[in-house]
Amino acid sequence: MCTQFYILWHKAFFVMSRILLFAIFSLGCLTSFAQDINYARKTISTLTSKKYWGRGYTNNGMGKAADFIESEFKKFGLSPLSGNSYKQFFSFSVNTFPSNMKLELNGNALIPGKDFIVHQASKGIATSDSLIQKDSTTYLSKNGKIAISLQPKLTWSVSQQALDYTIVEVNKKSISFQPTQINVNITNELVPNFTAANVSAIIKGTANPDSILVFTAHYDHLGGMGSKTFFPGANDNASGVTMLLDLAKYYAAHPPKYSIAFICFAAEEAGLLGSKYFTENPLIPLKNIRFLWNLDLVGTGETGATVVNATIHPKEFALLNQINNEKQFLKKINSRGKAANSDHYFFTEKGVPAFFLYTQGGIAAYHDVDDKAETLPLTSYENLFKLFVSFNTAIIN
Description:
This protein has two domains: 38-95 and 191-396, Zn peptidases (Aminopeptidase, 3-Layer(aba) Sandwich), CATH 3.40.630; 100-186, Glucose Oxidase, domain 1 (3-Layer(bba) Sandwich). The relative contact order is 0.15. It is an alpha/beta fold. It has seven helices and 17 strands. The strands form two sheets. Strands 1, 2, 11, 12, 13, 14, 15, 16 and 17 form a nine-stranded mixed sheet that branches.
């Protein structure tokens, strides 16, 4: 009886020990995840703050963001991708709006970013004039130098040139009257040789350092429109930069057999200029890249994600779906063909196998002042992180 009791007690103790160990392990995983989310939210809040001024072309926003990324690479212990510098400098022209941004219609002052935006290629102007209605959404100034366009949504961008006239897009929800008079004071500055830098680093592989897996993300956004309005760019693309930095931190602590490179591109919003420059002046042999992930718009995920170039690389896309189906990381991964819509494109043109993944669902903010850190849900952040690591492990093995 005592022996039987001892056996039962020993089994119960063994089971309880296993449960306790599992609970401790699970708690450790949850704690680790909490740290990842905290790092993600802190980093996105940093990159979207007023200090970085939309990571654009005024107030040294892009330069400050480049310095921040470089400091993170150094903190994690990564080496420069080539030589002794983490930065690869290049120059291009860009139209900027550094100061005045005033618009009044019929004596009513409108708020930049919320009520109106100036077209990115516009010339600055300071004048008062009457307006002539051209059609149901377009009004022209009597002097012919200004066009007012009523729009259902305000979406901004970046231009490398300046026109000879001024286009102002007005949110038609912001006015309840027919505009007949305009008072405007807008300043533009065309910068012919704006200097920016790609920021990159690498973790050398433990067994096959010449085989390289790459993560890329553009860190620039639209910058500021005038002296009081900037575009935060939380989802586009503080989310991608943050995921890249989080992966850099992980791989620095867990170096794999292959080398892992991390490249943050400038001037994506101006026409994929940073990635184009890199592929024309590569810091690593492009032929050594086993696979490249471009991370852009990865802050949501309620309805899943889409992969550009999925039809070009069906074996890798099948592998990705196999992993996702087994682990249930994302609700769904949609297939899309080749598209020149982010920094993977010029790598694809050079024959580098690459996927561009973006998440879907959640917030609809895009290229506007509402793309803020506080409203970015990061719904699939943890699972997306795990998906990237799992895919890389499968590729390496």
